[in-house]
Design a protein that fits this description.
Two copies of one chain form a homodimer. Chain A has two domains: about 1-55, Arc Repressor Mutant, subunit A (Orthogonal Bundle), CATH 1.10.10.60; about 65-200, Tetracycline Repressor, domain 2, CATH 1.10.357. The first copy, chain A, is about 70% helix and about 0% strand. Chain A contains nine helices and no strands. Chain A has helices at about 1-30, 35-45, 45-55, 55-75, 85-100, 105-110, 125-145, 155-175, 180-200. Chains A and B meet through helix 8 and helix 9 of A and helix 8 and helix 9 of B. The structure holds a DNA duplex (30 and 30 nucleotides).
Chain lengths: ~200, ~200
DNA sequence: CAAAATTAATGAACAGTGTTTATTAAAAAT
DNA sequence: ATTTTTAATAAACACTGTTCATTAATTTTG
């Protein structure tokens, strides 16, 4: 049965070869701008070959979506070490914002694009995303226990914070901040973040 | 010079014919799923004709983007009649949410898609959008004057509120709420909105 | 080891996309 | 009536995702 094993390993290697290549192209062009033919050319195989390893373009999308969350968790690796939950929450927000700024293509696929969420199976394979989210909710809960946040349903509070963060991030990423002149935009964003954190903090 | 006038009128009629048709198709298919050939077929002209009236697909996009904001303002026509600014603000939020729910294709083009904001000229032609936004900022300012909101930079507060509203709306529209079971999702959204409104309200 | 069976890779095609251009048909001006 | 201007189009270009019959390589069997 050693042949079958090697076969399977080779299949896996090919999959990662395709994904790595798709990944590289995707990072500097954006997903919609990367075609199957582009990927095929990069790995020096024919376009049809890719369909032996992935059902369709969406499945590649899906795989990259998962990888983006892995990368996001790596990006936030320092967070659990922050003992004070409110400090951690604030840092989490800053990191979220920083991630969006530094890796807009990732942010796009994780939260903005509709494609990777069309299928239903994507919940099962959202392990890394679920991890990030539950860590976030846990931090909110701890903030309540330590009296930094008022006692509410912590899931509701978490959703509210995330909504705000995601809202401002996607307005920026999608260029919907033109009503604020370029020079003051960053200032206003910063002020807004501080205001929000102040408003939800228990007084 | 009566010929030139008629010519111009006909040109304008053709433009609106194309736009109306594009609009109809767009509403039930979404912009990316509507092709120039689809539009051409609907108005019974050749695809090339459309390029005599619009530079490219993005220009059609742009026109629909404007129309969406006109429609949005119509949708909110009852708002200015609400005298109490905080009541108005709350209603504005509810209407924003309702708009997203009832007209996701519009919401998509207005705030989510990247295409219509690629060019730089789109600021000048954003009259209806600017109108909606300044009315919103004005309401926030009034809320401060009447003591419903703490005295802060009203533009910063407005951005914060909008970010929250846009955040939750786009999470919903883009199917990023799967961590909350279907049954309780609506409940949680409602609770979040109430929580947010309570937190920003002056105490 | 040779023949048969399985597997992997591909070229070519299909049906679609946005966009351009040379050509034709119609209308207006001379 | 003839020339000029304008409008509309067919056809093409260079792409896209995807499928499938054919070929080439590899593994299994006799």
């Amino acid at each position: 049965m050693t042949v079958k094993q090697r076969r399977e390993r080779e299949k896996e290697e090919m999959r990662t070869l395709i994904l790595d290549s798709a990944h590289k192209l995707f990072i500097d062009k954006g997903f919609d701008e990367v075609s199957i033919r582009n990927i095929a050319e990069a790995i020096e195989y024919s376009p049809a070959t890719i369909y032996l390893y992935f059902k369709d373009k969406n499945e590649i999308f899906h795989a990259l979506h998962q990888e983006a969350f892995r990368f996001y968790n790596q990006f936030n690796i320092e967070l659990p070490a922050i003992r004070d939950p409110f400090d951690r929450l604030v840092k989490m927000g800053e990191k979220y914002f920083e991630f969006m700024t530094l890796h807009p293509k990732y942010y796009n696929i994780m939260f903005l694009m509709e494609a990777p969420m069309r299928n239903d199976e994507c919940i099962d394979e959202w392990e890394e995303g679920a991890k990030a989210h539950s860590f976030f909710e846990q931090t909110v809960l701890e903030c309540m226990e330590k009296g930094y946040l008022a006692a509410d349903d912590h899931r509701v509070v978490a959703l509210t914070i995330w909504s705000y963060m995601h809202g401002i991030c996607s307005l920026i990423i999608r260029n919907r901040m033109k009503m604020y002149p370029e020079e003051i935009r960053e200032q206003i964003q910063k002020q807004s973040f501080e205001l929000f954190m102040n408003k939800i903090r228990k007084r």
